[in-house]
Amino acid sequence: MSQANTPAGVHAPIEGSARLWGTLAISAATFMNVLDTSIANVSLPAIAGDLGVSPNQGTWVITSFAVANAIAVPLTGWLTQRLGQVRLFVTSVLLFVLASLLCGLAPNMPTLIGFRVLQGFVAGPMIPLSQALLLQSYPREQAGRAMAAWAMTTLVAPVMGPLLGGWITDNISWPWIFYINVPVGLLAAFFIWRIYHRRESVVRKLPIDRIGLALLIIWIAALQVMLDLGKEYGWFESPLIVGLALTAVIGFAFFIAWELTDDHPVVDLRLFKGRNFWAGTLAVSVAYGLFFGNVVLLPLWLQQFMGYTATDAGMVTAPVGLLAIVLSPYVGRTIANVDARRYVTFSFGVFAVVMLMRSHFSTQADFTTILIPTIIQGVAVAFFFVPLNTITLSGLTPDRIPAAAGLSNFMRISFGAVGTSVATTVWENRATMHHAHLAEAVNAGSPAAQATINAMVQGGMSQQQALGAIDRMLQQQAFTLAVNDIFWLSSVLFIALIPLVWLTRVPKRTGPTSAAAAEAAAGAH
């Protein structure tokens, strides 16, 4: 089919070297985007220390990006109609580069969080548009190859993120985890524009649900700020936290009422009428919240209480993607012939085993002991995203798949941010409790405590120094016991999610459409 005979907005596949360069440029932009969801994880202690805040406050660097990204995802369809696929994608990449540069230059934590919000928001359209541009670059019979290349990019980036972030933090400085996006993004934007600017989609002026969008931003932002500030302000003893909670609840109620009655809702809540959609979305969201919360928590514990450098923490957390890269093609080939619920059940079971293994960590755990569960977790990741998204999108007509995938991804990303805040908050609360219990044993009537203090004093310490050293040991033990509590609870919750998966109906085994496959693959992000 020649370009001349192609209807407006529909383009023939790209041929030759242009397709190769286009694929590389789109993959580089996607890689840059996904990399930023994990590269900062191992750098949080360095960022927090440099900007004068606690490591737990440093997690706002992660949650602010995730919340802004989640809000932007439902707007992708409307923005595409108004600006066109190519123009929106290139604009998103360039704004992402600018936001990355500003993140690296941020002089304090509030400024960094503001720029991370901008970075997360402009990143929203990049993932779905990268899929759309790749699919139109290849003949229909090669759509699977295009999505396989895309999926590999999104799987390799989480592996490289902790390694690259750790090495940069230890050997250069943390701002460079953001600066490295600048050359990559500029080159990607240049090649994408040169290759695709004549392949723009049809532009239409569509109305936008301004009130629904405003309500969405209000209740999501209020909820996340409440979770991030709760412990610092004493939770509901603080009028600020109470006000944020009321804002979130009232905003959410008005949002639901408005979206169910508006003719052009920013989020189509009617999709939740489908059993597969609501059960699948709930399962993927809660599971991702558990997964991502633990992904952020593990490097914090390793660096604060196990003496790991950022590089070492990256080496422990990065291998989660290795087995996922190996097994994902198998899952993609067989998903049309296997009950996807079996794959998800297997995935949740492996996640539960991994978390149970981690719940037995001690302060004496060596590198290999900590590394093995991370490698095994790659199996769970491979059997998690695509099968669960296949269940979630099954039974929907093609015209509803983009909205459904957008809503599902919005829920998943939001739960990732909530999971991070909840995990770090519960971790600190449990550590405080364990520290109090352990400290009860350090008293004048304890022969073991007195013997330890006497040995330290004889070794040259003062009484105060000896007590300080013991308190540091108690802190290490308390936070280790607390992180074990989080891992154990996560294991239980993964098992509890399995019945939810079996509430869904068996997806039709006719193979996903190219659009559905693309959206299912989006779960890898």
Poorly predicted regions:
1-6, 510-525
CATH topology of the largest domain: Growth Hormone, Chain: A
Summed up, the helix count is: 23
CATH superfamily of the largest domain: MFS general substrate transporter like domains
The helix/strand class is mainly alpha
Radius of gyration: 24 Å
Mean pLDDT: 82
CATH architecture group name of the largest domain: Up-down Bundle
CATH class of the largest domain: Mainly Alpha
Proportion of β residues?
Answer: under 5%
- Largest β sheet strand count, sense and barrel closure: none
- For the termini, the CA-CA separation is 33 Å
Could you say how many structural domains there are in total? Answer: 4
**What oligomerization state is this entry in?**
single chain
Question: How would you describe this protein?
Answer:
This protein is mainly α and 525 residues long. The protein has four domains: 9-207, Up-down Bundle (Growth Hormone, Chain: A); 209-265; 270-426 and 485-525, MFS general substrate transporter like domains (Growth Hormone, Chain: A, Up-down Bundle); 434-476, no CATH class. Helix content is 73%, strand content 0%. It has 23 helices and no strands. The longest helix has 39 residues, at 401-439. The chain is globular, with a radius of gyration of 24 Å. The chain starts with 15 loop residues before the first helix and ends with a helix. 49% of the residues are buried. Residues 1-6 and 510-525 have low confidence and may be disordered.
